[in-house]
Each structure stands twice: as C-alpha cells, then as structure tokens.
Design brief:
Distance between the termini: 39 Å
Radius of gyration: 16 Å
Pfam family, one: CAP
Organism: Urochloa decumbens
Protein name: SCP domain-containing protein
Strand content: 15-25%
Keywords: Signal
Number of helices: 4
Structural class: alpha+beta
C-alpha cells in the first residue's frame, strides 16, 4: 500500500484530503509532491511540547520553520511557539491515539484554530506542514478564493496574519501512521476575511 498523507483544516466546515502516492513516473506540474516513508513501526505518542531541554527547541523549530517560511513569503509576521498550545495539542493527539485510532479530532468547539494531518507512515513535522502549505497553489489572494474542487483552509490558517502563536504535537499509532495537530492563537479562517 502506498504511503498517504491527509490534512484537515478544522476551522473550516469541509475537510481536505491529500493523497500523496509514490509514483515512478514524473508527476504533472500541478500534482502534489510525493513523500517517501521515513520508517515504519509502532510507537508511543510523541509530544513535542512535553520533551525536555534541547529536544523541545528542536521540535518547536521543526514546526515553526516551515510555518514562518510560508508566512514570510506573503509578508506576514512570524509565529511564536506556545508551550501551552503544544501541551494542549499533545493531549489531543494522545487521546486520539488511545480512543480514536489516530482519527482526526473534532475541534469544532475549540477556541483555537487547528490544522490536522494524518500520514500512513512516520511523517516528520516539516513534511506535514509542507502538505498544508502546498494548498497555497490553489489559493487566489486577489479575490480570496480557492480553486474549484480544492481546499485551501490549512494553508490560509498557516498564513493568517492575525495568528500570533502556534503549538503542535504528533502521535505515532500502532499501525505506524502519524497524526499531527497544530493549534493556532488567535484562530484564522474567519468567514469573509482575507488571511493577509
């Protein structure tokens, strides 16, 4: 079975699915980038926010760097890492790992914005954030729309101008799949508003 990566902008009504399949033939210019698995195997929940010392800074950087690169590309200020949001995200992914088989969490009642990503393998934080940012190719800032039949919500949350901080965590499921959740404060994807 080919590795796959799904994303979900939980501050929007519709979910998005990115199926990234490994192909030997070159992909068309508008196709999603194929990802290769980083190693399978079962594992326990890995909560970036709850690791100590340099591991916390390294984990935060792994999430922050691709977020802030995407934000710089559209001229919005960088995000700061929030230990509180990372701890909250860690609790959610751990609960989903235990109770939901690493399914997406229902974040509809959350006060925070949230992006979720699921990969059939141990995806790195950078790979997951890159999949969210890749939705930007379908977003038209001039009229604040997304291409027909496409989703842009995870991208617009990443680059939402008013969002100031982020905290993220991952869980590795018994199947070797990875669930990633990033929480954003203040939330983005406000209906009728442009992200930047």
């Amino acid at each position: 079975m080919a590795p796959s990566l799904r994303c979900h902008p939980t501050t929007m009504a519709a979910a998005c699915f990115l199926l990234l399949t490994l192909l030997l033939a070159p992909a068309p210019a508008d196709a999603a980038r194929a990802l290769t698995p980083r190693g399978a195997g079962a594992g326990a929940a890995t909560k970036a926010a709850q690791q100590g010392g340099n591991a916390t800074a390294t984990a935060a950087d792994a999430y922050l760097a691709p977020h802030n690169q995407a934000r710089a590309a559209v001229g919005v200020p960088p995000l700061s890492w929030s230990g509180d949001l990372a701890t909250a995200a860690g609790k959610i992914v751990a609960q989903q790992q235990r109770q939901g088989g690493c399914a997406f969490a229902d974040m509809g009642a959350s006060q925070y914005g949230a992006n979720q990503g699921w990969a059939s393998y141990r995806a790195s934080p950078g790979e997951v954030v890159a999949s969210w940012v890749a939705q930007g190719r379908y977003y038209a800032h001039a009229n604040n729309t997304c291409a027909a039949g496409r989703q842009c919500g995870t991208y617009t949350q990443v680059v939402w101008r008013r969002t100031a901080e982020v905290g993220c965590a991952q869980a590795t499921c018994a199947t070797g799949a990875t669930l990633t959740i990033c929480l954003y404060n203040p939330h983005g994807n406000v209906q009728g508003q442009s992200p930047y």
